[in-house]
Amino acid sequence: MREAVAGRVLADKLFKVWRKDGAEAWLLIHIEVQGQVDPDLPRRMFIYNVRAFQLYGRTVVSLAVLCDDRPDWRPNQYIQEAWGCELSLKFPVVKLLDYAADAEGLAKHANPFAQVVLGHLKAQETQGNATERYQWKLQLVRGLYDHGWTAEDVRQLFRLIDWMMALPLDLQNQFRGEVHRYEEGKRMPYLSSMERLAKEEGEAVGLRKGLLQGIAAALRCKFG
Questions:
Q1: How far is CA 80 from CA 43, 45, 92, 127, in A?
Q2: Hey, where are the domains in the chain?
Q3: CA 181, 137, 201, 8: dihedral to nearest 10 degrees?
């Protein structure tokens, strides 16, 4: 998307997908990951939807993933009206906070994005409690080995969880040691090169990028 007078109008991701029966059906999916409360979100959703339609002339489905910690903030429409002329867009929203009560279900779910959601929720829940965060982080990473995912999928999810659930240096070093010992016991050295992982983590840019990487990993596992 090009920038315009309206401000930043760069869509995070547009996906072209096929139906499960293999038939081609053009449908552009715009996923907006919103980390914090932003009153301008509905307007941006409208702009992205219209711009995508202008570029491709195809149906555009917009979806907002709300990652904030306010249960009552659920914007799902944009309306512009003047002198009897009205423009509007209604879009579905996914509120990650709605899944907070089902940590066990998320941990067991076969969809990799469930681990991303759980990591994000526990990062919010354990703010200011490094010990509890350490325990949850270790539990989440250990659980990555139990789903039959590829080594690369495990590494991608590990990077994301490690990024979201930042720990003080002493606990982070302890965490790395525990992961290494766990891998040795499982004979699954997916994360054994911690120096390489640390370098790659340093190249990550923001939580938004990490969340989108998690969504992309989930889509790859689901659609190939």
A1: 9, 13, 18, 38
A2: 14-91, 100-223
A3: 170
Q: Are strands 28-34 and 60-66 parallel, antiparallel or unpaired?
A: parallel
Give dist(CA 134, CA 216) in Å, integer.
Answer: 26
Give the integer Cα–Cα distance in Å for 214 and 19. Answer: 22
**Tens-digit pLDDT profile for residues 118-173:** 999 999 999 999 999 999 999 998 888 888 888 888 888 888 888 889 999 999 88
Looking at residues 99-105, what average pLDDT do you find? 89
**What's the rounded Cα separation, in Å, for the pair 134 and 202?**
20
Q: Which residue has the higher pLDDT, 210 or 92?
A: 92
Alpha carbons 183 and 97: distance in angstroms, whole number: 31
One-letter amino acid at 178 equals E
Cβ-Cβ contacts under 8 Å for 215 (sequence gap 6 or more): 13, 31, 33, 65, 113, 116
